[in-house]
Amino acid sequence: MEVDKKSQQTDFMVQLLLSEYIIRVAGLAEINYTETDQQYTSRVISYIHQNYDREVSVAEIADAVHLHPGYLQRVFKVSTGTSIHEFLVSYRMKKAKAMLAETDISITDIPHYIGMNSQQYFSTTFKKYEQCTPSAYRKTHQYNDKLRR
Q1: Whole-angstrom Cα distance, residue 68 to residue 3?
Q2: Which candidate among 2, 33, 51, 110 keeps its CA 20 to 30 Å from the CA of 16?
């Protein structure tokens, strides 16, 4: 209706209304953007929890959540404070610690159970995260039946 009126005040009023509309649309877009990022992050975490035991790439994860790998990495980093790769390695180390403490699985086999193909990479990474070797961790944390009796 304001556009149909012809006056200088009408032009100003139309500009104000248009500005208000743009601000409201931008606000709605921002809200949906944040919710979507959280959903993508949750889907990535779920994917990692289900597939940590095999070789997984960022490109494969991005494919699974239908996003470009670069964009997904930025979204994940903003949401969690860590990269996808770091999150995956950290989760694998958590699983390795549980296996070392709660099972008798050979230390040389554990990398294969957690999706790491190299024993050397596993040992180096484990030492970086835990400040001790996998065998030292097992010695200090493994449940001992004899001590319980």
Answers
A1: 42
A2: 33
Token code pair at residue 15: 């500009």
Angle at which helix 8-51 crosses helix 58-65, to 10 degrees, equals 120
Q: Are the C-beta atoms of 117 and 55 separated by less than 8 Å? A: yes
pTM of the predicted model as reported, rounded to 2 decimal places: 0.72
Q: Which pLDDT score, from 0 to 100, does residue 32 have?
A: 52
DSSP letter at 60 equals: H
Distance, CA of 110 to CA of 24 (rounded, Å): 54
SS3 assignment, position 102: helix
Q: How far apart are CA 98 and CA 96, in angstroms?
A: 5
Secondary structure element (H or E) that encloses residue 141, with its range: helix 134-141
pLDDT (tens digit per residue) in 37-71: 888 999 999 999 999 999 999 999 999 999 999 99
Query: Does residue 69 contact residue 59 with C-beta atoms inside 8 Å?
Result: yes
| Residues counted in the chain | 149
Structural contact between residues 113 and 99, judged by C-beta atoms closer than 8 angstroms: yes
Angle formed at CA 50 by CA 114 and CA 34, multiple of 5 degrees: 120
* The pair of three-digit structure tokens given for residue 17, joined into one six-digit string: 């209304």
